[in-house]
DNA sequence: AATCCTAATGACCCGCAGGTCATCAAACGC
DNA sequence: GCGTTTGATGACCTGCGGGTCATTAGGATT
């Protein structure tokens, strides 16, 4: 997944017509598939295209994955779950104000997901959720719920410390994440439509600023 | 579009095998298509299913629409554009504080779009945007830009009146709308996953409250 | 009632893409 | 080198669904 692009296409000049590369294939296939899925959506993605991107043929794909849907699942599983795990490590060891923790988490999320190819995954999963309920359930359990739990702990910390006013934590979490997810969906939808685009960094900053003001405890109450 | 459901299915017992209903067909087709598209997405929707829902056969669809994509376009066009027009009328005639105007607009939006079948359209368009750039452009021009313009005027009003602090208006608009759009996408993706769901009304209220606190002018500066 | 017009039908066509498999040839062991 | 294993191929199969069209029949006109 996280390998540099186009691992397989180069280097076949004058070598044998193909090479045995059993170990490297799955990652290369998932890498190529992620690009295709994000670009065109699940249904519109042709396995033959994925195969070409991965430097193999369609038949080879079926040596490693039993179906198109299995590729889809593997891509989601392998690419996103590690990010969540990383976030959990971050929160576990944190000392400091809740404000700063939240700001750090949001910015970290933006750097590792929002700005990368991974930002396409939420859109992908949500778009296909009704056609692949099992995948949606998996994603919801392994990513959404764990992610919420993560940010929920930070917000609860802020309430406990008196930094934030009393809040419905689950709702507050959704409110914190909604603009982030929204923007990452946006990136893969309408960017081509308004070519000027907008300053996403500034948007995230504005969101953080506004949100933290909005949930701050009445003035002077912070510890 | 806005007709009550299942207009065509009933009333065929003992009548003739079919009736000529040239005037009613397009609306019934779009109505059925909206349901199918929202339920399954564009690619996974079979025209035969849409036809069945509309009480006709596939061949008949092609008397009224030249292609599946044309149905898609018509659905989006006919269902959403009127909502925008309605909003423009609302803002034009409004007298009162910017806070109240924004709260009214958001709640109105939620009632007419968020709570209805129309909430599926943003998801649909965004999911298919890369496969149908023309449609995406149309939607962006006729809905997104006009919608932003609308809310932008309300926010600018608040700044001018000293209710809100100085803001980058385009960003502030996106920030206001992101949670709304996000929730309407959510409704059509993960609802099946967490069956408890969450109180959307409360979410919108929390968002409005937090947002308005967050952008409020420093205390006591309002006129 | 006979006629015509056309809305509606449903059997059909066909291209496309998911999936299969007999065959080939890398590369490993001896 | 030589046989064997097995990763990789690409021609092939097949079902599905978008799109077509000759035919049928509703219902308006006379």
Report on the structure:
The structure is a homodimer of 223-residue chains. The first copy, chain A, has helices spanning 25-40, 47-53, 58-64, 68-92, 98-114, 120-128, 133-160, 169-187, 200-215. The first copy, chain A, is mostly helical and 223 residues long. The termini of chain A are far apart. Helix content of chain A is 65%, strand content 0%. At the A-B interface, α6, α7, α8 and α9 of A face α6, α7, α8 and α9 of B. Chain B binds a DNA duplex (30 and 30 nucleotides) through residues 16-22, 25, 46-48, 56-60, 62-63, 66-68.
pLDDT averaged over residues of chain A: 91
Q: Count of DSSP E strands of chain A?
A: 0
User: Which chains have the largest interface?
Assistant: A-B, 54 and 54 residues
**Overall outline of chain A:** elongated
The end-to-end span of chain A amounts to: 44 Å
Helix/sheet category of chain A:
mainly alpha
Instruction: List the secondary-structure elements of chain A in sequence, H or E.
Output: HHHHHHHHH
